[in-house]
């Protein structure tokens, strides 16, 4: 045992579905101000349906899954939205290896993998040891509120308390009255006042 053991983290399989792993900051290494996930997307996916923001910078990186040839192995079309004003965000279509710095308090998403010809390697880096997002919710009286959601690694599944949450989105889909089918549709709903 070394006095530096607390600075080394070995990735372990966890409860999140296959093809991804996480470094969950403080949960993996005391006093860490870094959070990251490493994912492979090999099929079309609508990942983040609504605009959110963080209180710290975030970096989003997409490259081809073959790291010996990240450009030649990139074959995808990814829709991503970003902007300081939730109702006037800008759409980006990512078709080549890209990194996006999302400054603190800047709205971003929806994020949709519209076409995936070859697997895409995605890495998220957050300059905080805990992952949490702010989003907008509208209550039954029509008032808009900012809501903070933190992913707690030990959270149980809403539908089956014997399982850990895998962020599948089923519980969120049922809590939202309307669920968009695409990133473009989500932004139209946002612009219309949702």
- Assembly annotation: single chain
Overall strand count: 11
| Helix share, percent | under 10%
Structural class: mainly beta
Can you count the helices? 3
Major beta sheet summary: 5 strands, antiparallel
**Globular, elongated, flat, extended or rod-shaped: what is the shape?**
globular
Mean pLDDT: 81
Proportion in β-strands: 35-45%
Low-confidence residue ranges = none
Side by side, the strands of the main sheet go: 1-2-9-4-7
Cα-atom radius of gyration: 18 Å
Elements, N to C (H/E): EHEEEEEEEEEEHH
User: In whole angstroms, how far apart are the ends?
Assistant: 55 Å
Detail the topology: elements first, then pairings.
Elements: E1 20-23, H1 25-28, E2 35-41, E3 45-48, E4 58-64, E5 76-83, E6 90-94, E7 98-102, E8 107-116, E9 120-126, E10 132-138, E11 144-150, H2 170-175, H3 183-191
Antiparallel strand pairs: 1-2, 2-9, 3-8, 4-7, 4-9, 5-6, 5-8, 10-11
Summarize the structure.
The chain has 194 residues and is mainly beta. It is 10% helix and 37% strand.
Which tags fit this structure?
3 helices; four-stranded antiparallel beta sheet; globular; mainly beta; 194 residues
Describe this structure in words.
The chain has 194 residues and is mostly beta strands. Helices cover 10% and strands 37% of the residues. The chain has three helices and eleven strands. The strands form three sheets. It has a five-stranded antiparallel β-sheet with strand order 1-2-9-4-7. A four-stranded antiparallel β-sheet has the order 3-8-5-6, covered by helices on one side. The protein is globular and about 60 Å long. The N and C termini lie far apart (55 Å). The mean pLDDT is 81.
């Amino acid at each position: 045992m070394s006095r530096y053991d607390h600075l080394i983290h070995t990735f372990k399989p966890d409860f999140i579905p296959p093809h991804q792993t996480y470094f969950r900051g403080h949960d993996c290494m005391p006093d860490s101000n870094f959070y990251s996930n490493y994912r492979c997307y090999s099929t079309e996916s609508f990942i983040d349906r609504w605009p959110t923001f963080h209180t710290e910078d975030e970096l989003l990186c997409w490259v081809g899954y073959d790291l010996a040839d990240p450009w030649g192995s990139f074959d995808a079309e990814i829709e991503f939205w970003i902007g300081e004003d939730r109702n006037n965000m800008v759409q980006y279509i990512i078709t080549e290896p890209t990194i996006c710095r999302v400054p603190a308090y800047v709205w971003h998403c929806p994020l949709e993998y519209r076409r995936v010809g070859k697997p895409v390697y995605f890495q998220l880096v957050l300059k905080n040891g805990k992952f949490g997002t702010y989003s907008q919710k509208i209550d039954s009286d029509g008032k808009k509120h900012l809501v903070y959601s933190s992913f707690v690694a030990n959270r149980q599944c809403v539908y089956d308390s014997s399982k850990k949450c895998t962020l599948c989105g089923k519980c969120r889909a049922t809590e939202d009255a309307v669920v968009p089918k695409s990133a473009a549709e989500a932004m139209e709903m946002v612009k219309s006042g949702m």
